[in-house]
Please model this.
Amino acid sequence: DAKTTQPPSMDCAEGRAANLPCNHSTISGNEYVYWYRQIHSQGPQYIIHGLKNNETNEMASLIITEDRKSSTLILPHATLRDTAVYYCIVRVVYIGNTPLVFGKGTRLSVIA
Amino acid sequence: SQTIHQWPATLVQPVGSPLSLECTVEGTSNPNLYWYRQAAGRGLQLLFYSVGIGQISSEVPQNLSASRPQDRQFILSSKKLLLSDSGFYLCAWTGTGKNIQYFGAGTRLSVL
Model:
């Protein structure tokens, strides 16, 4: 799986959009970009994933650059409950028997 | 909808005592099931995965074992706990599409 690089921490004001970047310059053509988050003392929560088109769901939007070497997770209106560690993971779509590899992620702090 | 249940949420056990953690998935059939461990401040380590009843694959040699007695039940066990077995244990599953891994709430185990 391709390696990802994320800033270690970010702050965001409550009610504002949180934009979390991820670099994955060695991504292969068959690898998707997945985002998970882990709120303190809870299990990781799936947020969204995409291949090359931008994706949106009820939680967030995922913007992938045209060359697919980077992406941005957007939380449109951050709340205090969005404070968590956010992980960007790149891998082929069929997870099968192999584990997800979580890096250090970005610790997002939403401030009132 | 599919849900995953893990219990207990927290557990304190003495060294040398046995362990049994249970994970069940509802609302799906023939899931792939996984046990991960997360040490304090570190990433997730895959311990076991299962693609079907009675089929267990171990990723890391250790003091633990896993069993899958039913399609949607996954059990993590130990005959004698070690101090190094302390950590946050997470169960996860992937469904029919096999492309998204969902996690349980986790069990925080302290071996004293």
